[in-house]
Specification:
Elements (H helix, E strand, L loop, with lengths): L1 E7 L5 H12 L7 E5 L3 H11 L3 E4 L1 H5 L8 H7 L4 H10 L4 E2 L4 E2 L5 E7 L4
Parallel strand pairs: 1-2, 2-3
Antiparallel strand pairs: 1-6, 4-6, 5-6
Length: 121
């Protein structure tokens, strides 16, 4: 399972999400799932539908328990986690998952994406 986790501002649109994903996917295996925090799932549905990928909503309390490679001041203030994208990818990929790299930021700086690899489902 290869999970793309997302963190994004409330005004982020499909192009922001695609931009972050494109940057994160460079040199990585194909993504099989998308993930973000539960209260942001609705904003990620258009991307999931366009890509034909399943989407997982991660409970906010599950993000806090995840150690991330990067530390964003905005993520720490909003969610008490270093990177929502990295934590979402890791939580979405399940126990024992590992990041394939740090989060990447969309060209317009509205969204971030990180890729994690977990066990096959």
């Amino acid at each position: 399972m290869i999970v793309a986790g997302f963190g994004f501002r409330s005004g982020a649109g499909l192009s922001s999400l695609r931009g972050a994903l494109a940057r994160a996917q460079q040199g990585q295996p194909p993504v099989t799932h998308l993930a973000t925090v539960q209260d942001k799932v609705a904003a990620l549905v258009p991307l999931a539908e366009a890509l034909g990928l399943p989407l997982t909503g991660v409970a906010p309390e599950a993000l806090i328990a995840v150690s991330t490679a990067t530390r964003s001041v905005a993520s720490l203030a909003a969610r008490d986690v270093g990177s929502v994208a990295e934590a979402s990818a890791l939580a979405g990929a399940g126990a024992g998952a590992g990041l394939l790299g740090p989060r990447h930021i969309s060209p317009d700086r509205m969204a971030t994406c990180a890729i994690a690899q977990g066990s096959p489902t």
